[in-house]
Design goal:
Length: 116
């Protein structure tokens, strides 16, 4: 890959550099978590970009990151496997799509099977 030459500060992608030691970032408002009946989640099966390992990916959650992490923890505990929460997605190790869909339906979520 060739390196791109920077011609101006805009080429840095909107970063602002400051020497002001009293500067405070404005915190973005936390998105309010919708109740489970109003959530529309999708259950994906994937193994691309993971060295051939299969995972179940849950997308479409609307709400705070803490609530997303607690839902991820619930799913990992009920399935007895590992996983993570990144980029507003819950990633569960293994092909547990059907089991996760049953768990989420019991919790009151609307979930749709996507792909294969």
């Amino acid at each position: 890959m060739s390196k791109k030459k920077l011609n101006s500060l805009e080429d840095l992608g909107g970063f602002v550099f400051s020497t002001n030691t009293n500067f405070e970032f404005e915190n973005e408002e936390q998105e309010e978590t919708l109740v489970p009946k109003k959530q529309f989640l999708e259950a994906h099966f994937s193994n691309k970009g993971r060295g051939g390992k299969t995972v179940t990916v849950i997308t479409g959650f609307v709400g705070s990151e803490d609530d997303l992490k607690s839902l991820g923890k619930l799913l990992k505990t009920k399935c007895g496997v590992g996983g993570s929460v990144k980029d507003n997605e819950i990633i569960i190790q293994g092909n547990y799509r059907d089991k996760i869909m049953e768990i989420l339906k019991k919790e009151g979520y609307n979930i749709k099977r996507v792909g294969g």
